[in-house]
Write a sequence for this structure.
């Protein structure tokens, strides 16, 4: 065992076993050490850092820090705030590496700050053209790190590498032509020495893909299209040439299993969103999770949640990997609360459907068959006159990160019980223009509906508890070893729940809309929890 | 033309901030005046809207599900108070926000048709040929109808119902008539009732000023403002009906028509 490994373990133990809350300080210390692939694989062993978008490669978004716990959470107080200058949706999850925090900002910028004070070291502002094609806000969700280099997606569909110490641009690669409707918003995922990254543009008739780039050079190593070409039999799940403009984007960060060497990534809606008549068939591999070889991008298996989707129910959720016991058998599982309103437990080695049931209001399916395929109800397709269906296009949940606690064995999901009237219409494809084939409307004021944090038992799909929050909340969730669940609500509350019971234990009104998810880290023995609300990144610790 | 970013900002912001003088000085008559206002133009504008704008603003412009685009049906636009201001925003977008313009590739005609469509969403006739008398309706409002007990008009009246000073710009006569007959058919959640009961049995009830995940606030019948926590010692109940009575039996048909004529006459500019 190396001395650095021993030091890491000592740090973990000192944090995990109740060091008294002292004012954190690393004044004068040299901070920020290179992040090796080995550190990323073992990120759970250094819980004082938050080394990737979802915390760890299994994307459990579970912090092993427990200084802030059900007994101490009432003593949380604001430590610092960082204001994001560009007004838009702030969807960032910051990274923390040895006391340095990296925050992405709208539209495609990143700032490095002291994680103790929030004060900046450097800033990188990415220049953007004026003719962007973005469906849903000028936003960015975070960076990835390998060595001393950060990797960031940009709205003009580029991938950039930035020096983590200075903010200098290292390389800049065009992933796709933004003028055709492509854009990039998600944090990349490091897999060994590659940067794996997806693409957005499902409302612009793109053809989706997932890419891997050499982290040093920026050269592309593999590309896997999420709609197979005409030489593949699954291409026949698209009528005619509809596959060419079929969408199936990959606009959120996936997960990775080092033992299986499989990258897991969700795919978005087929296009046009609401007119399925022009793309008859199952439309593979839209609305699916793909399991790809980490070295080649070759597909190992896929599971399609919503065949022939006509409601814009992207399977753009974070694949949560957890080892569970199901019917007395140990399973390498994948836990997935989908935008279509159903929760799924899959076998992540094979893609086998293990169980599934609704976790949010849904009216479009009788249930799932033994293979996990939905049993559709008649007359639920969008129509010229409008068809009332639950969930809404935005889903029973969306891209908002769920969290899984190995201590409680529960998956925590921000869910929404809503409904919408779905309309379809004919629309010609024009490159670079929106290509949706319809639209939606919510029939009643939002006060008639309900959001909730729901705790799902992955071996049954049952909801263990729920905590109602104001509709419609777009916040992710963090679970911690302090047996807390942190999240936020649409009106700007940041709050902590008891992870076992759902009882609210602490909250503070921060007064802005939320589109982000919490994360936690520690510096010199003091645990912090960070959440972006409105256009401000807030960090709390014990007083 | 490819403008530098700073030049482009100025080009967008100046017309929005100084609409009237800028129009007169810096734009041609063709640019500043909407020549595409026919019914066909309106239909074309609606078609363009449904192709380009519904993802953020909703199919009928009432606001997007994702909360990205605001409601465009109110007739009031935060960043533009003229047709030219709307034209510029539609074409160029709003820098620093999610609002991307349709760009200079779009024809001038199609952008103006979009303006025509947006204007049509709030185009209530100002001189409707209604059967009732607005003067008589005003007397009913403050008298037999007892409407002023709860509703304010131009600073006079109660606070327990919506301020009706601009109702004629917000609702058509048929909708106003329907609300008088069946107030519970479409109750804005702002006017639901909240009931709070304390640990010692004390209770308060009032219109729902605001409710969120952890708290709610009411105005009681005496117009006192009160705030409560959902997770303290108080229990609470939400009542989704209106506090307004139906006027189906309390007013005659003629009286209701007079009242509708009065309410529909309430505008910022007579």
């Amino acid at each position: 065992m190396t001395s650095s490994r021993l030091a890491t373990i000592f740090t973990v133990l000192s944090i995990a076993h109740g060091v008294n809350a002292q004012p954190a300080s690393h004044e004068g210390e040299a901070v920020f050490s290179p992040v090796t692939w080995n550190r990323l694989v073992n990120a759970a062993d250094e819980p004082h850092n938050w080394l990737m978008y979802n915390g760890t490669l299994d994307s459990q978004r579970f912090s092993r820090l427990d200084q802030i716990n059900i007994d101490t959470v009432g003593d949380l107080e604001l430590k610092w705030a960082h204001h994001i200058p560009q007004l838009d949706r702030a969807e960032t999850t910051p990274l923390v590496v040895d006391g340095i925090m990296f925050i992405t900002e709208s539209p495609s910028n990143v700032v490095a700050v002291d994680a103790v004070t929030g004060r900046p070291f450097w800033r990188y502002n990415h220049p953007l053209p004026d003719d962007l094609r973005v469906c849903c806000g000028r936003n960015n969700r975070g960076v990835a790190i390998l060595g001393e280099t950060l990797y960031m997606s940009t709205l003009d569909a580029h991938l950039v590498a930035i020096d983590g110490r200075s903010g200098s641009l290292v390389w800049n690669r065009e992933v796709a032509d933004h003028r055709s409707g492509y854009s990039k918003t998600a944090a990349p995922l490091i897999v060994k020495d590659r940067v794996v990254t997806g693409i957005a543009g499902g409302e612009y008739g793109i053809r989706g893909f997932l890419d891997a780039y050499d982290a040093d050079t920026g050269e592309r190593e593999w590309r896997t299209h999420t709609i197979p070409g005409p030489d593949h039999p699954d291409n026949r799940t698209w009528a005619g040439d509809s596959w060419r403009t079929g969408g199936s984007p990959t606009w959120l960060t996936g997960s990775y299993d080092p033992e299986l060497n499989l990258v897991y990534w969700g795919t978005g809606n087929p296009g046009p969103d609401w007119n399925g008549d022009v793309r008859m068939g199952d439309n593979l591999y839209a609305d699916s999770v793909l399991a790809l070889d980490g070295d080649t991008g070759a597909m190992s298996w896929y599971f399609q949640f919503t065949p022939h989707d006509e409601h814009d129910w992207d399977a753009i959720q974070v694949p949560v990997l957890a080892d569970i016991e199901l019917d007395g058998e140990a399973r390498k599982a994948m836990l997935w609360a989908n935008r279509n309103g159903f929760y799924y437990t899959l076998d992540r080695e094979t893609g086998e459907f293990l169980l599934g049931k609704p976790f949010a209001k849904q009216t479009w399916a009788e249930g799932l068959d033994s293979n996990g395929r939905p049993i559709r109800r008649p007359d639920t397709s969008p129509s010229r006159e409008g068809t009332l269906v639950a969930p809404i296009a935005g889903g029973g949940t969306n891209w908002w990160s769920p969290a899984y606690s190995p201590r409680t064995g529960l998956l925590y999901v921000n869910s929404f019980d809503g409904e919408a009237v779905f309309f379809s219409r004919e629309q010609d494809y024009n490159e670079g223009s929106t290509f949706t084939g319809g639209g939606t409307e919510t029939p009643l004021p939002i006060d008639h509906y309900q959001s909730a944090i729901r705790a799902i038992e992955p071996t049954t799909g049952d909801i263990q508890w729920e905590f109602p929050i104001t509709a419609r909340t777009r916040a992710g969730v963090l679970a911690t070893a302090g047996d807390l669940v942190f999240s936020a609500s649409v009106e700007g509350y940041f709050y902590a729940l008891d992870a076992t019971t759902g009882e609210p234990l602490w909250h503070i009104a921060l007064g802005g809309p939320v589109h982000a998810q919490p994360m936690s880290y520690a510096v010199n023995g003091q645990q912090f929890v960070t959440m972006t609300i409105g256009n401000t990144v807030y960090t709390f610790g014990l007083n | 033309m490819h403008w530098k970013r700073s030049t482009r900002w100025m080009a967008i912001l100046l017309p929005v901030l100084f609409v009237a003088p800028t129009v007169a000085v810096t734009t041609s008559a063709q640019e500043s005046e909407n020549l595409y206002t026919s019914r066909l133009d309106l239909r074309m504008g609606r078609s363009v809207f449904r192709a380009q704008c519904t993802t953020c603003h909703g199919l009928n412009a009432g606001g997007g599900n994702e909360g990205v685009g605001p409601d465009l049906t109110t007739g009031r636009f935060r960043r533009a108070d003229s047709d030219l201001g709307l034209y510029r925003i539609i074409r160029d977008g709003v820098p620093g926000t999610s609002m991307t313009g349709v760009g200079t590739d779009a024809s001038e005609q199609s952008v103006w048709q979009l303006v025509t469509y947006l204007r049509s969403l709030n185009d209530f006739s100002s001189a409707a040929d209604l059967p009732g008398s607005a003067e008589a309706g005003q007397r009913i409002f403050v008298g037999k109808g007892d409407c002023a007990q709860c509703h304010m008009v131009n600073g006079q009246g109660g606070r327990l119902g919506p301020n009706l000073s601009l109702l004629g710009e917000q609702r058509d006569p048929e909708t106003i008539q329907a609300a008088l007959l069946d107030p519970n058919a479409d109750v804005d959640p702002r006017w639901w009732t909240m009931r709070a009961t304390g640990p010692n049995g004390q209770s308060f009830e009032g219109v729902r000023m605001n409710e969120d995940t952890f708290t709610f606030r009411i105005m009681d019948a005496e117009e006192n403002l009160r705030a409560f926590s959902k997770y303290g010692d108080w229990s609470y109940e939400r009542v989704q009906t209106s506090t307004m009575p139906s006027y189906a039996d309390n007013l005659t048909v003629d009286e209701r028509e007079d009242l509708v004529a009065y309410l529909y006459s309430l505008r910022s500019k007579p």
Q: What stands out?
A: Confidence is low (pLDDT under 50) at residues 1-30 of chain B.
